[in-house]
Amino acid sequence: MKFSVDHAEGSQPITILRLEGDLDASNFETVIEEGTRLHGEGTSHLLIDLRAVPFMGSSGLVALHSLALLLAGGAGDDLASGWEAQHAIARAVEGGMQSQLKVLVSPDPDSSLARVMDRTGMNRFIEVCTDEATAIAAF
Amino acid sequence: MSDPRDREIAELRETLAFERRRLERELDFARRIQLNLMPAAAPQPVGWEIATAYRAARVVGGDFYDAFELPGPGERVGLIIADVTGKGLTAALMMAFTRAVHRAAAYNGSGPADWLERTNRVLVRDARTGLFVTAIAAELEASRRVLTYASAGHEPAIFLRSDTGVVEELPAGGTLLGLIKPALASDREVHFEPGDLTVLYTDGVTDAIDANGNRFGPDRLIAAVGLARERSAADAVVGILGAVDRFAGSAEPADDLTLVAVRRLP
Question: DSSP assignment of A80-98, as one string?
Fold first, then answer.
């Protein structure tokens, strides 16, 4: 898995984290670490570009979810953050689509990533875009 | 007289070895508990076969299946196959919790979609772990020859029509358990003719990797199910496992692998 980082200006500063390579159980934690590092440096709105990710396993969903919660002011999926923090996140999740993380996937209708996001319902929680300019404008 | 530092290093090594043995014993114990949570044998209603397989990629895994007789009239069997996102001990703990919640939901609920919704409510509210569960729950009504199923973000079941040999993915729907309420699961029915077979599986099957990094994928799985025409449910499971093993070769499995096959006898 390779990372690169870009920045864009929408209605607010947006960090674009571009991933390259399969995203699965072997490396999803490194994606969380990279997103956490960016958050620590001040990122509050994150676009994750998955167009160069040919395969995403269910562990990839955990990475996306964890970073979405982190940006929403939670503590990611760090169990050490405590039960109360986790319940606070729960209330945020029950609010539906979160606003500070979006993902960018290939516009190919056969894109396996778009299908995974749709099949699992993760697209009810994280907005999935197929065009970078539209994604940036959507923040 | 030996150097005190050598003695200290030797003691530390002994302590580390002891701790490692203790952890290995605990993990082995956890593995046996987990395996015991799976049914020793699936119910076999008259005129039907149910076969299963389970392999954990690590000592303990996040996949599970369950097969159990449902209370009430008629010969009815409850089924679930599920995959907890994430791996290792945390996924295994979540698996044990989810299995228990789902079994209780099935004993008290009104059908697979209701079971999944009840399970989801508990996971969203009380098990905020950052882990999710994909699942297919199903109810086999032997006398009606109908399998009612509902999906929560899981890989679609594969269905083999015995008379034509056509293999198809059954429509699914619903969202991951533990993410958001409601899970939007809905009941669907599939009618079995004699010899028809359905296979439920986890992504350890389709995500198996060969030495070149290629994935087994749904197309190879569909082909493997197609070869199971006129075979027993147990032979179908063995055939699929064999296809995955031949494909993966010596590559280390990256994920747990679970199969449940349901067949109406000819």
Answer: GG-HHHHHHHHHHHHT-S-
Does A66 sit within 8 Å of B175, measured CB to CB? Answer: no
Question: Are the Cβ atoms of A58 and B134 closer than 8 angstroms?
Answer: yes
CA-based nearest distance B136→chain A, Å: 12
Kindly report the number of other CB atoms within 10 A of residue A1's CB atom.
Answer: 15
Contact: B176, A55; criterion CB under 8 Å: no
**Cα(A63)–Cα(B157) distance, integer angstroms:** 26
Helix, strand, or coil here: A107?
A: coil
Q: What angle do CA A19, B255, B252 make, to 5 degrees?
A: 95
| Sign of the four-CA dihedral B98, B103, B108, B113 | positive
Q: How far apart are CA B168 and CA A60, in angstroms?
A: 27
| Per-residue tens of pLDDT for chain B, all 266 residues | 578 888 889 999 999 998 888 888 888 877 788 788 888 899 999 999 999 999 887 766 788 999 999 988 889 999 999 998 877 777 888 888 999 999 999 999 999 999 999 999 998 877 666 778 999 999 999 999 999 999 999 999 999 999 999 999 999 888 899 887 788 889 999 999 999 999 999 999 998 999 898 999 999 999 999 999 999 999 999 999 999 999 999 887 877 899 999 999 99
Q: Which residues of A80-105 are buried (b: 16+ CB within 10 A; e: fewer)?
A: eeeeebbebbbeebeeeebebbbbbb
Q: Quote ipTM for the complex.
A: 0.75
Sign of CA dihedral A90, A96, A102, A105: positive
Q: Collect all residues of chain A within an 8 Å Cβ-Cβ radius of residue B176.
A: 61, 120-122
A residues 103..132 contacting B (CB < 8 A)? 119-122, 124-125
Other beta carbons within 10 Å of B1: 4
Beta-carbon contacts of B214 under 8 Å, excluding residues fewer than 6 positions away, are none
Check residue B7 and give left, alpha or beta (phi > 0: left; psi -120 to 50: alpha).
Answer: alpha
